[in-house]
């Protein structure tokens, strides 16, 4: 895989404006969308697909235009004329370009791909797309939850992970998150939790943050939210990349086989690249330096051929009347079943291999719905899921302007559709026939119902207990709010625990109301005494007593991100050069880095190139947060006119100087436990910057030896031991 990092994804070389009509440039290969998604009606596969609509500009009615820059006026300096139909069409259409953003998950990034079934789920489901070797086109949209469409990517938040499988038997939407539990147990509270988490209604701040009074007011009062909240406060709330996130269906679903047998399942997405995060300091810096960090990362990786992959897996449980597993209520969406107790069994592989051609048409207009189910997959009575089954169609009616959103190309099923839904806003279909009702005699009785052999969708045969009363209530098993947050806390490594303490302390320090902080501290006391004491100390508050007896839990190592090694595909390696670089060495190094799937980025004092090697970053336009590791190939001196600020360790004079921006780069990398490699003059840079040594600092006279060791260490993502451990 050869990545072309750091360039806008559709770079066109600068050219003079053509004076004659020319055919538009070829599309990028990843823009050839299947016919079902071609927005202009040009058949996929033709040379025109993915282009503008042709060489000449026209009105919406196809009349060719000779000018679109000047309105029709009564004289050169006179008023514009009402008769200018092109002006009015252009402005009117523009006035209506925006649609309401999603009420939650407004900011997203998406890609096309393919899903291949392993066949391992065949005994428990008749869903055809899970058959061995069966390939199904998919569209996956990742998102943050709280922020507006224009908010930043690396905010502390849950991430959406929604996949549309265009199966031959009807579309299946797996609309999940990167956190396996949810804030609430009953969907009726969804408007409450979202109102609490969104910005305050008076000033509309803060944007895309949970660090404010109303959020903590809600979660400290609704303690069922504490499990989801501790995941948000952990490193899972600030992923390194969409490509490095797990995904979860959250609810328990059902799989139904051809005999009608039902099995309960929980869906998991396992990223091939492992689960990694940025640190809170990095996240905050990235939000300023590159607010599009995650969407850029996804698009760049796909464009460069580094296709991200996830295995779809399931945990399975017998569909007994109790629907519990070892005391864990499977209908309670605030609970997980640890993987150590019920392993995740892989059932297929997702590969994202095509970027979207048009953000609005695809990423913005895609409409997911947990009720889009093919034969073989069904829902359970989880009260959160039940409410979602209503919400997702309803919300599109406002957002996409009517009930025909399923006709938008990105939402069209790939299975043949023959419904009796008619008319309505934005009706694009020209339906034949006179009898869209059943039974009828006028259309020859068509369409007919499918018989069993035609594999229709059959609802799971669920028995409802006789004598049930209508109640607004929930089972007692839903009342345990603290055992699983405690399980999560106890499963973390010391450094992850330290990050969690830091996150709670940061967030609660932004809360104004003392009573809310104190109430949240009681919730923390119910999770773990050390966690509570550390956060209380950070806030300068007393340590409250727990109100619940802590339950002893056995840790689930699968919940920790630390301690495993992962592939390095797409990891960004910065190479700092000075005024006297060894071009041959750099060329070799870049090739070596690229050949292992990583991305080398040359950093220098100014733009341009070193012989034929492009300089992709300068000391002024980059920060440490862009890189997973940094190699010091030189010791760049400060710019002659720079005001050099240096600490006492760098107090040497003469040649013993380092550009202060590189000093900062090295210091930040060190603080964030990134792997740093250096050789030759690079070791001087390391020394001047702060005499850095120890774990994750690799020096050797030979660049190749440095790179090998850096690569080995990067497999664990960071030099974890460099972070201070959680206080005893
Ligand atoms: Fe959603 N959610 N949600 N949600 N959700 C939406 O649908 C809703 C919940 C999730 O990329 C909305 O089209 C209710 C859980 C994702 O387009 C809306 C409840 C999970 C996305 C909606 C939940 C999710 C949404 C907003 C509680 C993880 C983005 C726009 C009963 C399993 C999909 C839209 C995309 C989007 C409602 C809870 C995931 C309003 C009522 C739990 C990934 O319909």
TrEMBL record:
Its cofactor is heme. GO terms for biological process: hydrogen peroxide catabolic process; response to oxidative stress. Heme binds at residues 102, 141, 190, 388, 392, 399. Its EC number is 1.11.1.6. Residues 1-80 are annotated as: Disordered. One of its GO terms (cellular component) is cytosol. The active site is at 105, 177. Belongs to the catalase family. HPII subfamily. This is Catalase.
């Amino acid at each position: 895989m050869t990545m072309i990092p750091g360039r806008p994804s559709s770079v066109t070389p600068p050219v003079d404006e053509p004076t004659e009509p020319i055919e538009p440039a070829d599309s990028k290969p990843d823009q050839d969308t299947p016919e079902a998604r071609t927005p202009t009606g040009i058949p996929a596969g033709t040379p025109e697909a993915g282009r503008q609509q042709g060489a000449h500009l026209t009105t919406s009615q196809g009349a060719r235009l000779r000018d679109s820059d000047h309105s029709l006026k009564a004289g050169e300096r006179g008023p514009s004329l009402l008769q200018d139909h092109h002006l009015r069409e252009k402005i009117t259409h523009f006035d209506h370009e925006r649609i309401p953003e999603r009420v939650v998950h407004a900011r997203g990034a998406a890609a096309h791909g393919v899903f291949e079934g392993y066949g391992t789920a065949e005994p428990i489901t008749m869903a055809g797309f899970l058959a061995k070797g069966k390939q199904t086109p998919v569209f996956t949209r990742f998102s943050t939850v709280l922020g507006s469409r224009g908010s930043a990517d690396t905010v502390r938040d849950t991430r959406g992970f929604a996949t549309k499988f265009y199966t031959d038997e009807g579309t299946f939407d797996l609309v999940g998150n990167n956190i396996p539990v949810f804030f609430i147990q009953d969907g009726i509270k969804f408007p409450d939790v979202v109102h609490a988490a969104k910005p305050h209604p008076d000033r509309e701040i803060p944007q895309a943050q949970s660090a404010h009074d109303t959020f903590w007011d809600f979660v400290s009062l609704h303690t069922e939210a504490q499990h989801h909240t501790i995941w948000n406060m952990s490193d899972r709330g600030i992923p390194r990349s969409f490509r490095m996130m797990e995904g979860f269906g959250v609810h328990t679903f059902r799989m139904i086989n051809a005999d009608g047998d039902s099995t309960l399942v929980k869906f998991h997405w396992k990223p091939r690249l492992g689960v990694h995060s940025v640190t809170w300091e990095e996240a905050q810096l990235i939000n300023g330096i590159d607010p599009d960090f995650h969407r850029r990362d996804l698009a760049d990786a796909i464009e460069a051929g580094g296709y991200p992959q996830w295995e779809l897996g399931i945990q399975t449980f017998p569909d007994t009347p109790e629907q519990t597993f070892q005391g864990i209520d499977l209908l309670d969406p605030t609970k997980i079943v640890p993987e150590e107790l019920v392993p995740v069994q892989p059932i297929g592989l997702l590969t994202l291999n095509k970027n979207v051609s048009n953000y609005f048409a695809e990423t913005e207009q895609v409409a997911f719905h947990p009720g889009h189910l093919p034969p073989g997959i069904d829902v359970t009575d989880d009260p959160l899921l039940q409410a979602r089954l209503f919400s997702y169609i309803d919300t599109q009616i406002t957002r996409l302007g009517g009930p025909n959103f399923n006709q938008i190309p990105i939402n069209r099923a790939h299975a043949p559709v023959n419904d009796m839904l008619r008319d309505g806003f934005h009706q694009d279909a020209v339906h034949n026939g006179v009898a869209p009702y059943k039974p009828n005699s006028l259309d020859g009785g068509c369409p007919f119902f499918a018989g069993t052999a035609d594999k229709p969708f059959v609802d799971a045969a669920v028995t409802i207990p006789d004598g049930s009363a209508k109640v607004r209530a929930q089972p007692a098993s839903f009342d345990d709010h603290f055992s699983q947050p405690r399980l999560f806390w106890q499963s973390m490594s010391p450094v992850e625990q330290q990050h969690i303490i830091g996150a709670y302390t940061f967030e609660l320090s932004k809360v104004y109301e003392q009573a809310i902080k104190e109430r949240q501290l009681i919730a923390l006391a119910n999770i773990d005494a050390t966690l509570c004491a550390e956060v209380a100390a950070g806030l300068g508050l007393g340590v409250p007593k727990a109100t619940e007896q802590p339950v002893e839990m056995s840790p689930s190592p699968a919940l920790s991100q630390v301690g495993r090694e992962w592939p390095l595909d797409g990891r960004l390696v910065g190479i700092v050069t000075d005024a006297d670089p060894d071009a041959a060495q750099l060329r070799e190094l870049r090739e070596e880095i690229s050949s292992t799937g990583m991305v080398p980025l040359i950093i220098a004092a100014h733009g341009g190139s070193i012989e034929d090697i492009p300089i992709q970053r300068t000391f002024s336009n980059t920060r440490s947060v862009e890189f997973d590791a940094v190699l010091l190939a030189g010791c760049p001196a400060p710019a002659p006119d720079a005001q050099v600020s240096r600490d006492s360790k760098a107090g040497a004079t003469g040649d013993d100087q380092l550009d202060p921006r590189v000093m900062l780069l090295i210091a930040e990398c060190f603080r964030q436990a990134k792997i740093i490699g250096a050789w030759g003059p690079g070791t001087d840079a390391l020394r001047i910057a702060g005499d850095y040594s120890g774990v994750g600092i690799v020096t050797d006279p030979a660049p190749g030896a440095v790179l090998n060791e850096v690569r080995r260490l990067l497999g664990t993502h960071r030099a974890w031991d460099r972070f201070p451990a959680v206080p005893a």
